[in-house]
Fold this protein.
Amino acid sequence: MELLIALLIGILFSAGTYMILSRRLLRIIFGTSLLSNGTLLFLMTSGKLQRGESPILGKLSTTYTDPLPQAMILTAIVISFATTAFCLVLAYRTYQEIGSDDVDELLGKEHDDDH
Amino acid sequence: MTTNLPLLPVLIPMISGILLLFCRKNVIAQRFFSFISCSLMLFVTVFLLFKIHADGIMVFCAGGWSPPFGIVFVADLFSCIVLCLSALLFFTGLLFSFETIGEEREKHDFYVLWQFLMMGINGTFLTGDLFNLFVFFEIMLLSSYALLVHGASKAQLRETFKYLLINIISSTVFLIALGVLYAMLGTMNMADAAQKASTIENQGFFTVIAMLLLTVFGIKAAMFPLYFWLPKVHTVATASVSSIFSGLVIKVGAYAMIRTFTLIFIGDTAHTHLILIVLAILSIFLGVFGAVSQMNYKSILAYHSISQIGYIILGLGLFSVSSLTGSIYFLFHHGVVKGCLFLTAGVTEKITGTKDLKKMGGLLASYPALGWTFFIVAMSLAGVPPLSGFFAKYMIAFSAVQQENYWALGCAIGAGILTLFSMIKLFLYVFWGKAPREYIPAEGFQYGRALIPCFILASVSLLLGIFAQPIFSLCNEAAEQLMAPQAYIDIVLNTIGGR
């Protein structure tokens, strides 16, 4: 099980890195969400994978799933959601400003005083 | 004993930020509430500093859960000192924003973001939990992205996108490091992690986590080789935002580095702290070389931030009570001085309409107060006695001699000369000589009022130099707390939560 998840994390990371290296803003944003999803899976495995157990330690249960990584993932999901939303707004605004989502179009003089 | 006091510096900006959302288009109310919040923060942080100096470390357990299970906020002397810096810079930056950012941007939630940025930064200084550190980092970053792009010119969009991307990647690395740390230690509480760190067998693997976190904090602190985003970000940011970026946002990285590398990652100091020293020296040198090569007012200041961060990390790398005293004093001094320099850069830009040094000159004749304020603060940055920069550098050089690390000593002093050179270059190009043309200040710009925050910061820098002795003894106590982490661990872990 851990091996499968590790492979999945590897695929997500490599696909995310590939996307980030492209020139389109939208692809870069998709790449970052793939990266953050890979990280979330990584966090989940850090608490040891356990199947079919609830994350509650009761009197009857002998084993349980570690609840802390789940709580951390939940927080991290919210944060990556907010960041991705901001990214999309920024990309849309950039598209409005320059009429293209190609990063090359964003190039300009390094220190232009255009604002 | 758990107490609610350490929560105040996070709570005040949060509540006022939410309040401000209800009066978005009313500029007077926005200014009024943010002014109240920032001045309240000044009082609270100074009170907290005195309180903690008298009573020792304070712990707040969220929800009544005792550590290591719940989230804790810990206020020790070091975090109180940086909190005071944060309150001061947000206060002066706010006064400066009143005069410079313009009504259009005030109506677009500038002050709301200002409050949330303050909340995020204060949170990172107070939290005693590594995952919570990540959460406060993200709060800080989200507001800083929005403040950076505020105005939405093409250059701002470009630089914000780069800044955003590099920080998303650094957050990914941060989460991975936390995952590995949790898998090894089974805890996120800093004090608990520090206690368990000495018991693990595989110290080599633990150093890997230290290096991952060093990368993350290095990106935030703009340390070599991860500083490339900083100068460009500064050239597009507004002056008041720049003063916060250079005065505080990069200090957050340095703070987190000092905190983790004095508390948790102290098992293998021969390796980790040597790496810190090498990286610090490289940052010091590449920062000043970058500054020497620039002709843009704000890039010069930004490159100097990189080299000054190097000094702070050098103090951490030397790892003794006296060097950490130097680091803490340096952190405070640099925040004040660099905040002031960026504000003067903002005033200059409003007057001349440019950041290019070649298009300025002769400002001293018509704006003497601005010129001499800049001169005092610039000399302080370069380390001329009796200003604060001299004592900061002296302390770090002194501890390098104590440890017979003459390489570090030579580099620290050599870079100081180059700093002096580029500060004099700025003064000559901007203020000295004859004005090449008639300057027409931006419309509605109140020169006198915009200078007030610069005066405040410059006088704080002067006072830091004049009263160096009592301030040094305070920093020394903070450094002793940092170098004796067992006391911190005991106080945190023995706190009993409850209602």
User: Anything to note?
Assistant: Confidence is low (pLDDT under 50) at residues 111-115 of chain A. The domain at 2-50+64-101 of chain A is CATH 1.10.287.3510 (Helix Hairpins). Residues 35 and 72 of chain A are 16 Å apart (CA to CA). Chain A is about 65% helix and 0% strand.
